[in-house]
Design brief:
362 residues, mainly alpha, elongated
């Protein structure tokens, strides 16, 4: 983790699939499957309650009247089915989707919705069949307008394969989804899980980091990244992501518990000083960086971090850390003097670097 990593990047969420209320519910179920008991369930439950409102009931009544007036309109039947599914009236929803398929046997929206309901009712074998049929029907350039439906089918197949621990198959499906929608943070998150299942932790880390580039506020991905880094014995990045998850989801127990296992910032500062005294500077830097993650307002941690960088000869790196320390304790005269000294030294080095660059250019 670098100093730049302490900030946040641009957020880009997964583009929504504008198909239905029911799809939104099913997407939340997929989140529950992927997070495996994390705080996603409470999100799913709350969102489901929102959908089960009187507004959805009124929508069902309106759509029911529309179906009575136009019984051979597959699109209206699908909308009614989606609204019914959002209210938990799954059997009635299935009836509407099947009626739509009798009108249009190749309606990929109806097939996708049937797969979603099958997932919601734990009928994964049936769901897999529906999603594979969507893939088959949308295979070809003439179906480019249905890419969102095809992408969702690939994604759902990937999550189903993950649930069955078919990791190679899951990775293939999820990569297929990414070919269509390359900025979907949740797909990268699930692909990371597939790579972990295959025993490739480094690739899993790369995928979850991509997910976080697109959605820095993805709390579950931060927590999962922390777990992966911990498996790689990288305490700095593990603590960083656990803390981000805890900050983003203060009501969740898991990230807070993971963070508490690291102890206090002061304990890591003490470990860093011990390593420094033993001449183990690289280890001391790691320890002090964990301390700064645990307590960004620790003047002692920032001060020691700057001292270690100076000791290693990294004056340019020590300057912003010293400035940060100075802001934490503006009355510390020694730190203010250190900042001024570093500013002069760093500025003096710049012309020399420029001369070297020009000489190399010649």
């Amino acid at each position: 983790m670098t100093e730049a990593d302490l900030g946040t990047g641009p957020s880009k969420a997964r583009p929504p699939v504008d198909l239905s209320l029911n799809i939104a519910l099913a997407a939340l179920l997929i989140l529950v499957i992927g997070v495996a008991g994390y705080f996603g369930y409470s999100v799913y439950r709350d969102r489901q309650n929102e959908f089960n409102s009187s507004a959805t009931g009124r929508l069902v009544a309106v759509l029911d009247q529309a179906v009575r007036k136009s019984p051979n309109d597959a699109a209206i039947r699908i909308r009614l089915g989606e609204a019914l599914g959002a209210m938990g009236r799954n059997q009635e929803a299935i009836e509407q989707f099947n009626a739509a398929l009798k009108i249009d046997p190749k309606h990929t929206g109806a097939l996708l919705d049937l797969g979603m309901v099958a997932m919601l009712t734990n009928n994964n074998n049936a769901a897999e069949g529906y999603f594979k049929k969507v893939i088959s029907l949308t295979d070809g350039n003439q179906y480019s307008a249905l890419d969102k439906i095809r992408e969702q089918a690939f994604y759902n197949l990937g999550t189903l394969a993950l649930a069955d621990k078919q990791y190679a198959e899951a990775a293939g499906y999820l990569k297929g989804a990414l070919v269509i929608t390359g900025d979907a943070s949740d797909t990268y998150y699930q692909l990371a899980k597939a790579y972990q299942g295959l025993g490739d932790i480094d690739s899993a880390i790369r995928q979850v980091e991509i997910a976080l580039q697109f959605d820095p506020g993805f709390a579950e991905a931060h927590y999962y990244a922390g777990q992966l880094y911990k498996l790689n014995h990288d305490d700095v990045n593990a603590a960083y992501h656990f803390k981000k998850a805890a900050d983003l989801a203060p009501g969740a127990d898991q990230p807070q518990q993971a963070l508490e296992q690291y102890g206090t910032a002061d304990s890591w500062v003490a470990k860093a000083r011990t390593a420094q005294s033993a001449g183990q500077l690289a280890l001391a830097v790691k320890y002090v960086q964990v301390a700064r993650v645990l307590d960004p307002n620790s003047f002692d941690a920032a001060k020691l971090d700057a001292a270690l960088l100076i000791q290693q000869g990294d004056l340019a790196g020590a300057l912003p850390v010293s400035v940060a320390a100075g802001k934490l304790n503006p009355t510390d005269a020694a730190m203010q003097a250190q900042i001024k000294s570093l500013e002069r030294q760093v500025e003096a080095v710049k012309p020399a670097k420029k001369r070297v660059a020009k000489a190399k250019a010649k």
